[in-house]
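Quiz preparation item.
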């Protein structure tokens, strides 16, 4: 299993803490209690550490390129599909698809469409639960806008949640990105919003599970057909 580079430090520190705690507990216990309890402690510590390691797993996935499709930027479950008025950058009516990542999902993030990064901004903020409606505008988040080759724009936000306290984005303004390139990582559960042209055809519904970089979530209409 390949481990994402964002996990190296946390995995190392967690492993060291588990080792020190296990050693301390071993020396504190009397010989009478040691044989049984030490194995309980060891098993619990190992399970916790393996969970941390598994959280930062990096799956190998085939890159798919289709300019008419928008792919899921993360693993998770669709929690929102609704029209919204985007006010941060594009200032227009758009269709929003939001995907919630549980703590057990792969937390790598992928670019849903190919093109040029036209806008990027990091927003400090609160840590409301990720499914809260205000999390899109009040939580810590990043906003990225990709301008596709034909001029269409797709915006996506990485949003921190109640547990997630660290968003990592590799996006820079002017950067050329291919569809389903890795664009970042969110640590310990959160959500991504994808905002598309208003008349895009949705391919998912609320409650649908999606796989990042593999599940198409919408089909874009030809640019000349947009109203």
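Solution:
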């Amino acid at each position: 299993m390949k481990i994402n580079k964002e996990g190296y430090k946390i995995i190392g520190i967690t492993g060291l803490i588990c080792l020190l705690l296990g050693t301390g507990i071993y020396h504190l216990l009397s010989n009478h209690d040691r044989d049984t309890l030490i194995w309980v402690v060891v098993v619990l510590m190992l399970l916790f550490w393996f969970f941390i390691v598994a959280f930062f797993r990096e799956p190998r996935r085939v890159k798919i390129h289709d300019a008419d499709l928008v792919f899921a930027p993360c693993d998770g479950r669709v929690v929102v599909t609704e029209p919204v008025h985007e006010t941060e950058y594009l200032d227009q009516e758009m269709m929003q698809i939001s995907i919630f990542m549980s703590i057990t999902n792969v937390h790598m993030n992928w670019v849903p469409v190919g093109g040029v990064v036209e806008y990027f901004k990091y927003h400090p903020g609160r840590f409301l639960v990720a499914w809260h409606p205000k999390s899109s505008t009040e939580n810590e988040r990043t906003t990225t806008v990709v301008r596709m080759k034909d001029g269409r724009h797709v915006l996506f936000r990485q949003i921190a949640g109640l547990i997630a306290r660290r968003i990592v984005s590799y996006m820079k303004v002017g950067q050329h990105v291919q569809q389903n390139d890795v664009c970042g990582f969110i640590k310990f559960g959160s959500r991504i919003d994808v905002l598309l042209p208003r008349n895009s055809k949705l391919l998912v519904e609320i409650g649908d599970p999606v796989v990042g970089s593999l599940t198409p979530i919408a089909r874009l209409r030809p640019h000349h057909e947009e109203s």
